[in-house]
Amino acid sequence: MLHFTHLFHYIKQLFLTNTAQKLFWVILFISAGSSIGIGGLSYWYAYQNMRQLELEKLEGIRREKEHLLGSYLQKLEEDLTLSAINPFCIEMAKGLNQGFLEIDTVLSEKQQQQDKEDLIGFMNEMVWSRIEDEKVLLSVKDFPTLGKSAGVHLQATYMARNPFGLFEKEMLDVSPSDTLLYDQWHRKCHAYFRKYKEDKQYHDILLVNPKGDIIYSVNKQIDFGTNLLAGPFKDSHLADLFLRAQTAYENQEDQTVFMKDVQFYTGNYGIPLMLAAIPIVHEQQGYGVLIFSLDEMPLNRLMLGKETKETEEATYDAYLVGKDEMFRSSPSLFQESLEEYVHEVMDEASSVELYHQVKKYNTAVLAHKLEGVARKHLKERKQQAIQGKNYLGEEVLSVYTPLEWKGNEWGIIIERPLSVIQEKMSQLAWSIAAGVIVVVLLVAYISIFLISPLKRSLMKVKEVLHQLFIGEIPEYLPHEQTGDIGQIKDTINSLVKQQQEYIQHLHGMFSDDIGAMEKSPRLTGGLGKVLYDLKEKIHKTKEREKEQQWMIEGKDYFSTLLRRQDWNVSTLLNTFLPELLQYVGIEQGAIYMADETGLELVSCYASQRKKYLNKRFAWDESLVGRSYQEEEVICIDHLPEEYGNVLLGGRPIKYHSLLLLPLKINTQVLGVVELLSVRQVKAFEIELLQRVLEIFTAALSNLYQTERINHMLEQQQLLNEELRVREEELVQSTEEMQVTQLTLSEQRSAMEKKIMLLEKEVIALKAKHEISEL
Questions:
Q1: Exposed, middle or buried, 207 (CB in 10 Å: 0-12/13-18/19+)?
Q2: Taking the alpha carbons of 708, 712, 718, 721 in that order, is the dihedral positive or negative?
Q3: pTM of the predicted model as reported, rounded to 2 decimal places
């Protein structure tokens, strides 16, 4: 409170000084206040625009990551499905299972004892120290003596007697003995499965027979050869997944892919793994379950890979989270520096156990629960963009989208630190501050230059001004004084007026004025009807798959096309329409964009050539205006003759269908797309058109916004140039006033000299007169 009292007293003393000083401080305060206000307004406007731009970039990255992850999971499902019906894989499953069952019958007691000794020695030296779960460790230690002799033999042969390192056992293709049936089948398939795993970037591929024995593994880890129903890993998520897949086969359910979310798996030395499985069935006979295991590396590449084109710099963090509020992929800080990540997270979580866990498994997956905006996202589970603190306590902009696959609930989070925006804004703030200082100094210099001569004039007429102030009229008012005061008053009024116009002009610059197919009656009842229904179902399924694939490829194609960075509105309109018509197979199309008076034709294409037409519709005119106003898709078949024909194959063909689709983004309709086809447009084609036009509308809206921003920047440059011209005019007016005042001063000095000469002449005349009287 004391500081405000001193400030008020200081301002009061300023306004109690003489008029010249008072005028100087008033002009200085007005210029400084207006400059600071305009600079602050500019800073706020730039910050809001930059924040919105960053959110749009993050939203683009989110959409791309969602597409990449969805494609990856779909490819995983396709790989499992195709592998399960691959004749080679089915044959390998049969042969490996036969070979596994034969081992118990052909091994001698001596060989079995040798297997146990070799395996115990290998486990004691390489494995037991790596297992932290006491229960699992005891079960693993008992396996060489209590496990099936076939499983013990496999571990002894392909792990204990394998010359490669602990994590390189997969490099052994052929058993040293290569005498058993199992060894022969292993030699046939192992190189194929190892290459398949490396090409697809999976962690491991396992084959489990119907009894729960892991009869094959590419990596040959400690779960190889064990039984998932009674062995050391019977309580693992791998065993649970096997039971789900095997039970589905036994219950004669459809052959489908099952999945388990990421969990720590002791059978792979504690590495967190995600599992996907499918039963192997051939001619209604089950041969076991095929399981793919995945570590975090593919997800890390999807979330933080260089595929994205939405940003030129890696200043965003993208990661996958589960409903348990834990990572499913490691964040960027972890991948850049493990030590820094552990240090930052320990500051938040204060957990020494976290440090040891992260250091041991070299992953942030399932390491700790997330805080801040991530928890809020997972609690609300809706697609949104918010601002808050991330898991490191940093203020970030965060976008989120929920994701569900095979019963597993995940979420994709994309974050960008606010410090990125603040760094850019700090540069702008320094520029604005420098501009404010320059303006204030310039105004101060001009004020001093103008007020110095004015002060001298005001001192001479001080008494007259005082009389005027108290309401009295002086007895006489010299003409020169009146002229000087009038000119000073006019000059001050001109300066104030110019300053007011300057402020109003700049305020104006930154203000906001601104059918389902029917069944055929020819097959009714009995087996004929069942076969017909099955045939129709298979046919419809294949057709739907083709339609879905066509739609996916179309959406991907146009998404890639519209992500190009070199578009402008004109080229986008002229390029997009021919591409769309060619892909869907429609003969003619037109794009109408809304303006202030109606809908104007901006692009038209027909019969493999561009049309140049000048056509407009009012809001309530034609079907185009109706589609725009109702914001709905209009589809009309069996068109009348007046819609004309199109030449196809050298002969005219009548148009059959008319399709009108609004270009809608959020609640705003930008225009209407009109399509004419000689055939009936199918429902799935209309669905693709709607999806592609959503992407096109978003891209077109962004281009319109970009051009509007560029136009505003050009207008701002013009206003800045006008301001510079006004400043030059102000300096010129100041120089002219100085010349005028100098001229008046010289005239006054001449008049005073004349008066003195006249006084001397009067005195001389009086003296002569007195002498003459005498």
A1: buried
A2: negative
A3: 0.53
